[in-house]
Specification:
Blueprint lengths: L10 E4 L6 E4 L16 H10 L6 H15 L2
Antiparallel strand pairs: 1-2
Length: 73
């Protein structure tokens, strides 16, 4: 078994879309940067069809705009 020690509670991971290092705070969602972008359920579904992993707030915002343009909002 390979156990890696984490030095902090939060993991630094790359944004799946742009590669920017982001701090994943899934265990304290309200403090995570992804909670900054308020997405509708349809926007969440749209983004989850394109990406599996975490995205930075900038990419989430850009994808939200892209979705809204696609549906003509």
């Amino acid at each position: 078994m390979n156990h890696t020690l984490k030095h902090s509670k939060h993991e630094i991971i790359p944004c799946e879309r742009c590669g920017t290092a982001i701090e994943c705070k899934a265990n304290s969602y309200t403090k995570c940067q992804c909670s900054v972008v308020q997405l509708s359920i349809n926007e969440v579904q749209y983004i989850s069809e394109l990406y599996d992993g975490c995205l930075c707030a900038k990419c989430l915002f850009e994808l939200q705009q892209e979705y809204r343009e696609d549906i003509g909002v």
